[in-house]
Amino acid sequence: MFGSATGPGGMGAIQQFIPLILMFAIFYFLLIRPQQKKAKEHRALLDNIKKGDQVITAGGVHGKVASVEDGIVGLEIATGVVIKITKSYIAALNNK
């Protein structure tokens, strides 16, 4: 009269989760994975920064690396003008 728990009602529950699984897969491949790849490339960039590199900060300041210490970078933005910035705020190398 009432049917079993593993009967047709069980199949409907599985079908309800299929769209959620598909949405998670789409989010993973379109958003999460590329963001992780970009973060990994940024970490590699920060690990390879050395004295003399031309860099651009997240705020748009261009300069030459004067010193690299634990988490601090001395950035020469003009002749004789060295500012200290947090290493993670370096956004890119300036290859010009």
> Mind telling me the CATH class of the largest domain?
Mainly Beta
Unreliable stretches: none
Helix content: 40-55%
**N-end to C-end Cα span:** 79 Å
- Run of helices and strands: HEEEEE
The assigned CATH architecture of the largest domain is: Roll
Gyration radius over CA? 25 Å
Strand order of the largest sheet: 4-3-2-1-5
Descriptive account of the structure:
- The protein has a five-stranded antiparallel beta sheet with strand order 4-3-2-1-5, covered by helices on one side.
- It folds into two domains: 7-48; 50-96, Roll (SH3 type barrels).
- The mean pLDDT is 89.
- By secondary structure, it is α+β, with helices and mostly antiparallel strands.
- The protein contains one helix and five strands, in the order αβββββ.
Q: What is the compact description of this entry?
A:
The protein folds into two domains: 7-48; 50-96, Roll (SH3 type barrels). The mean pLDDT is 89.
Please supply descriptive tags for the structure shown above:
1 helix, SH3 type barrels, 42% helix, 96 residues, 5-stranded antiparallel sheet, rod-shaped, 2 domains, alpha+beta, single chain
Give the topology, please.
Elements: H1 8-47, E1 54-57, E2 62-68, E3 72-78, E4 81-86, E5 90-93
